[in-house]
Amino acid sequence: MFIVRNRTDGLPPSIEIEIISRLYGGLTQIVCIAACVIVGATIVATRTGDPAMWAIVAAAVVTSVLRIIGVVAFHWRPARKLTLAQARRWETCYAAAALTFTMVIAALTIRIFHAGYVDGYILAVGLAMGISSGASSRAVRFWICCAICTLAIGVLIAALAFTGDFLLQSMAFLLGLYLLSIYEAAARNVSQIEAVLISQRELDFAARKDALTGIANRRAFDEAMSTAAGSGKAFSLLLLDLDGFKAINDRLGHAAGDDLLRQIADRLATVTRDGDLVARVGGDEFAIIAPGADAGQARSLAERVVARVGQPYILLGSPAEAGTSVGIKTVAGGDRHHDPETVRRAADEALYAAKRAGKGRAMFAQLRSVA
After folding, report:
1. Which of 109, 222, 195, 223 is nearest to 156 (CA)?
2. What average pLDDT does range 88-100 have in this prediction?
3. First CA to last CA distance, the chain
4. Class at the top of the CATH hierarchy for domain 218-369
């Protein structure tokens, strides 16, 4: 199973970014293993007076500080979403720091066994197994976990094998089996984490989709409105209310009404631009958020909507006609103080002004509608 794992594993970018971000959630574990390495190496260096061991202590301090700085820097970065390229750079930085720290543990192991510090054998075994079990239990990136465990345990296995002591060599064999189990556990843990995140993403996606039409629902609309109103960039809001929907429901039944809503959602997708959000916000009410659209672009979009929605329908085999009225509110760029509800209310007033004026038309919100 672990042989086929790789760096990206075909994950959606948002999932891969989330997984990489989780690498930086183990500060407590990093501090604990760093303390164990520094204290353990210091005790051995003090008892032996070995200059090489003191150099290892210094390296442990430096690499530990670098790992901690990396975690802090990640959490103190500007509060904006990571791109996949940025996330992978952070992953590389994390891996470099983690592997460098693991090299310090490997150097400690080599020095202890090479110099014959028998009292330090248990320390070397404990540190190698500690960092490998920690990497396995919190594995979110398979390749990083395997690299850390292979380096820490692999060096320990080699050191034990070259002692010439049958008992220690037997331990080296057992550690080889332990390393294989680490690979398997890490592969399983990573797969489970990925499956959970993908499931959460699918549920989150479904929670923002209208079950009948497949377009965005009220929740997604509210979130998009908050984002647009707080961005400081220009956008236009179009609110749509169908004309003749109740008559179709009464004449042809609710199944035909549902079919009409689905067809209208499909038609709206053909007249909006890439980047526009089309949402169903009520029974026969739709909304379009058009980022960057000024008054002229918003009017052109509304005219296309009215024309396209007003074309004839075939609903469950029966001909039918429906239309829509549109209320428009355009927000200029550079203002971050628009309340989403105020903008929506202004467009809503314009919508009902359009219906009072004869339906099948679009009207702009009056200036007095916005506080």
Report:
1. 109
2. 95
3. 61
4. alpha beta
Angle, alpha carbons 61-67-71 (nearest 5°) = 145
Catalytic residues: 284
Instruction: Give per-residue pLDDT as tens, 239-298.
Output: 999 999 999 999 999 999 999 999 999 999 999 999 999 999 999 999 999 999 999 999
Cα 99 from Cα 21, distance rounded (Å): 18
Q: For residue 325, how many C-alpha atoms fall within 13 Å in the half-sphere facing its CB?
A: 20
pTM (two decimals): 0.67
Please state at what angle helix 254-271 crosses helix 245-252, rounded to 10 degrees.
140
Contacts of 11 (CB under 8 A, 6+ apart): 19, 194, 198
Cα–Cα distance measured from residue 132 to residue 178, given in angstroms and rounded to the nearest whole number: 10
Helix (H, G, I), strand (E, B) or coil at 209: strand
In angstroms, rounded to a whole number, what is the distance separating the alpha carbons of residues 278 and 220?
A: 10
3-state secondary structure of 258: helix
Query: What is the three-class DSSP state of 141?
Result: coil
Domain limits, the chain:
2-207, 218-369
- Which of 179, 188, 115 has its CA nearest to residue 148? 179
What token pair was written down for 195?
């499956």
Rounded to 5°, the CA angle 47-49-52 comes to: 120
